[in-house]
Amino acid sequence: MPVALVATSHSPLIGLNDPTTEIRDEVRGVLDDARAFVRDFDPELVVMFAPDHYNGFFYDMMPPFCIGASAHSVGDYGLPTGDLSVDKAAAYDIGASVLAQGVDLAISEDMQVDHGFVQPLLFLFDTLQSVPIVPIFINCVASPLGPARRSMDLGSAVGAALADDDRRILLVGSGGLSHDPPVPRMEDAAPEVIERLLLRGRNPSTEQRATREEKTVKAARAYAAGEAGYRELNPEWDKLVLDALSSGDFARIVDHDNDWFVREGGHSSHEIRTWIAAYAALSGQGPYQVQSRYYRPIKEWFAGFSTTIATPASALAHARVSNKGVVR
Ligand SMILES: O=C(O)/C=C/c1cccc(O)c1O
Ligand SMILES: [Fe+2]
pTM above 0.90? Predict the structure, then answer.
C-alpha cells in the first residue's frame, strides 16, 4: 500500500499562550510544509494514533487501546465540535485483524475525542470531515499503563492489517516528547478532581470546561515565566527518542520501564506511545526514511514540540524533502 507518516506534538495552548512571533511563525511554517506534503500525498485514509486527556475516556472504563468506529470532537480549548468522517468498515476490519494478531483493543461506536486527535487533523486538513479516518486511542495518562512495547505491538498489528489495502494511507501519531502539563492523576488528585476523572467528567458545562482550561493557560504562563514547581523539558531525551524513531531502533525506547519515561520526559511523555505505534505501523511496510524533522522546546506550549514526516525508503526519490527548524 502507498503509505506515509506524519508524527506531531499537539498543544492546546497554541493560540492561547504563544511564544514569540518568530517561533510561532517557525512552527506555522513547519506545519504548513507538513500540510503541503499531505496534500501532495493525497491520502484516501488516515489512521491516527492519539491520546485523550479526560475528555472522552474516563475511569468508568479505561481501555489501554480503543479503535473508533464513529467519533465526535468534544470541542475542548475552542476547537470545533462535530463528527469525524470515520471509515467504519475500515475500523472494524482493522480492529478484527489486530485482535486476531493477539493485541487486545476495545471498539467504540461513540468515541469522544479531544485536542489529541483534533489538532493534528486540523494541522493537516481543512475540517474534521476532510478525509476518511480511523482514530485509534492509546491511553497515555490514566495509570496503570502497560509497557510502552505494547504500543509498538499495536502499531505493528495495525500495519499488518493495512498491508493489503491499496489505498494511499497516512499514518499519524499525535503527542508530545518531554512534557508535563497539569493533566490530573488519580494517584494524587483532590477529591473534586477525582470526580472529574470518573464518568461524571463527561459533558462538562461550558463554565466547568472554561475554568479547567483557564487553569492550564495560567499554569503555562507561570511555567514560561520560570516559576518553580514545574518539570523542565528535556531536549536531550527528546533527541534520543527522535534519533531512535528515525533509525527504526525501537528497542532504545520501548525496552525501558514506565518510570524511565516519567523520570526523563515527565508524565505526559507517555504520549510518545502514539508515535511509537505510528512508526511501528510504517516499519511493517519495509525500511523507512525520515524526510523532515523539526524540534524545539516551547515552554509556552508546555511541550518539547516536534513534527516529523517519514515515508518508505523506496518512496524517497519521489517525495518532497524539507529539513527545517532546529534539529538538536
Ligand atoms: O489540558 C490538557 O488536557 C492538556 C494540555 C496539554 C498541554 C501541552 C501539551 C499537551 O500534549 C497537552 O495535552
Ligand atoms: Fe497531550
Answer: yes
